[in-house]
Hints:
Layout: E1 3-13, H1 20-28, E2 33-40, H2 45-53, E3 58-60, H3 67-76, E4 82-87, E5 91-92, H4 96-105, E6 112-121, E7 124-125, H5 130-139, H6 142-145, H7 149-154, E8 168-170, H8 179-186, E9 192-203, H9 209-215, H10 218-230, H11 233-247
Parallel strand pairs: 1-2, 1-4, 2-3, 6-9
Antiparallel strand pairs: 4-8, 5-9, 6-7, 6-8
Amino acid sequence: MEEFKNHTFVICAYKESKYLEECIESLEKQIVKSNIIMCTSTPNDYIKNMAQKYNIPLYINEGESGIGQDWNFGVSKTTTDYVTVAHQDDIYNENYLKEIVKELNNGKDFVIAFGNYEEIKNGKVIPLTNNLKIKKILQKPLIKHGDKMWAKRFALRFGSAICCPCVTVNTKIKCDLDWDTWLEYSKMNYRFLYINKPLMKHRIHEESETSNLIENNIRLEEDYEMLKKLWPKPIAKIVMHFYKNAVKTNS
C-alpha cells in the first residue's frame, strides 16, 4: 500500500453534518494513504463519536471561529508540508492524492495543486452548470502554463476558478486558502498545479455555508471587492453582473 506521509487531510467539522461520515470514508479509501485529522469550533458528541469511530485525532478551536479561522487553526495542527483542508460535506475520489503525488514524483512542485470537480445535489452528480463550464475555460491555460503569472491570473479574473476544498497547499511556501490568497500566490514564482480530471465531488445543499453566504449576499460583496483588484471599477461592475448569474446555481 502506497503512503505519502508528508501530507495531511484536515477535516473541518461543523455542527452535525449528516454527510461527515461519507467524507471521512472517502479519505480512508484513498489509493495513496496519508494522515487525517479533524478540527472543530462547534464540539459535540456527534463529531467526537465520528473521530473515535475512525481513530482520527480531534482538535477543538477555542479561539476565534469562522471559515478562515477554522481552516487556519486546522492547518496549524499539521506537521506535514502538504495539506488539504477537506470540507465535511464533500466526497474525495479515491485517486485524489494519487494524482497529486504522481505530479510531485515527476518533479512538478507547486504552491497549490487542484483538479476538476463534479457537483452533487440530492445525492446525485448533476450535469455541468454554467458556473463549472466557465471555470473549466479559466483553468485550461494552467494545463501547460501553470508556472506563468498570466495563466494564474486568468484563472482568477472572472471569479475564482479554484475550488478551495479541492486544493492541496504547499505549507513550506504559504498556507492560506481563499481567492485573495490565490491572487497573492499568482505573483510568486511558484506553480499552480492543475490536474485536468475530476478529483472530488462538491456537494450543493441548503445548509452549506456557501449557500448561506450567497443567500445573505455576503460572499457577493466580498467577491466584488476582489474583482476590483483585477479590473478597473467599470469593467469589474460588468464582470460582476455575469458572475452573479453564474453563482446562482449554488442557491
